[in-house]
Amino acid sequence: MGASLSEDGILGLLARHFPAAHPSLLLGRGDDCAILRAGRPLCVSSDLFLEDVHFRRAYFTPEDTGYKALAVNVSDVAACGGRPLGFSLCLGLPSWADAAWLDGFFAGMAGLAQEQQMVLAGGDLSRCERLHVSVTVWGEPVEPGSFLVRGGSMPGDTLFVVGRLGLARTGLQALEAQGRAALEVWPAACAAHLRPRPQVDAGLMLARAGYNARPPALMDLSDGLLRDLPRLLGLTGEQSVACQDRCACLGAEIVLAQGQLHPEVVRYAAQRGRNPVHEALRGGEDYALLGSCAPDMLPALHAAIPGLTSIGVVTSGGRILCNNESTDSLGHGFDHFEA
After folding, report:
1. CATH match for 43-141 among 3.30.70.260, 3.20.20.370, 3.30.1330.10, 3.30.530.20
2. Is the CB of residue 183 less than 8 Å from the CB of residue 58?
3. Which residues are annotated as a binding site?
4. Known binding-site residue numbers for substrate
5. Where do you find CATH 3.30.1330.10 in the chain?
6. Where does the PurM-like N-terminal domain start and stop, copy by copy (predicted)?
């Protein structure tokens, strides 16, 4: 860490980018705790953003790093149909971090915070061998409406996404191979990986749509459709305990054509002899929204939410098919703990 960089100096730099007051706070930064003005339920989510696990400084600028560290958390609030209000930030800073790098990091994060009208309520600072970013974000339900959850899909429901499938995966592969030079050839894909756009407005519209009807099931796509769709359907994790009989489990029939994919996904896959639909299914870090809804809700959602695309139907029987083929041979998406 540069000799001129102290804890008080970091806090002063931070104060230049983030205002301390906000309507959702009774007491902001500077005390032992922030005090939230919480007269209604809040949704809360936390994420780690770690150097050489979630990003590389070789092709992430400081601004990209700050932006994405917050964006991945905002996406969780969007997936609940919530409106993001504020966040806390914990930073572990290695010796190379200096005031110039931090200024860029805070600028990228503050740009998204200002766009979403979010307040930084507090956090912590420490020394660390590698850059360690931990963000906790919270949000409120929309009026009228309530928070959305993953459960509740039924056979016959329509599956949909809001956002692009596989575009961030293409960007990651291009950046890993070419560094920031990939931005010239794969601009949309690189932007999708470096600066994902949380689908907050779409989440709010989906929550409103569920106010007088059966609410949509909803989650964000962070680990790829192959891993996240079973989560939506209750085929993995704690929900799967209740589904002992495979025939009684939910499944899905996905219909995904090349024409539904971003041209850069199709072009990148074609140049490498890969199936672009398979690349889209594997995905990862799309931070799109994945959901299901009653079929009669779909026309209104299409009209109200730009970028909403139907991708199939919920079935029974516990199997997931894509274009009439089993997805079992394609893997299961991203897992931090798999070799």
Report:
1. 3.30.1330.10
2. no
3. 32, 45-47, 54, 76, 123-124, 150, 220, 222-223, 285, 334
4. 54, 285, 334
5. 43-141
6. 30-139
> What is the average pLDDT across 121-141?
94
The closest of 206, 198, 167, 181 to 73, measured between CA atoms, is 198
C-alpha atoms less than 13 angstroms from C-alpha of 267 in its C-beta half-sphere: 10
User: By mean pLDDT, which of 64-78, 226-240, 262-276 is the weakest?
Assistant: 226-240
- Amino acid occupying residue 294: A
- Per-residue pLDDT of 10-46, as tens digits, reads 888 889 899 888 888 888 888 778 888 887 899 999 9
pLDDT band at 56 (very low <50, low <70, confident <90, very high): very high
Q: Tokens 């639909």 — which residue?
A: 277
- Please give, one letter per residue, the 3-state secondary structure of 247-307: HHCEEEEECCCHHHCCHHHHHHHHHCCCCHHHHHHHCCCCCEEEEEECHHHHHHHHHHCCC
pTM reported for the whole predicted model: 0.91
User: Does domain 157-235+246-326 match CATH 3.40.50.300?
Assistant: no
Distances (CA, A) of 96 to 17, 179, 180, 326: 21, 20, 21, 48
Dig out the tokens for 292 from the structure.
């299901």
CA of 20: how far to CAs of 11, 43, 86, 118, in Å? 12, 21, 11, 11
| Residue ranges at the known binding site for ATP | 123-124, 150, 222
Please give the annotated binding residues for Mg(2+), written as ranges.
Answer: 32, 45-47, 76, 124, 220, 223
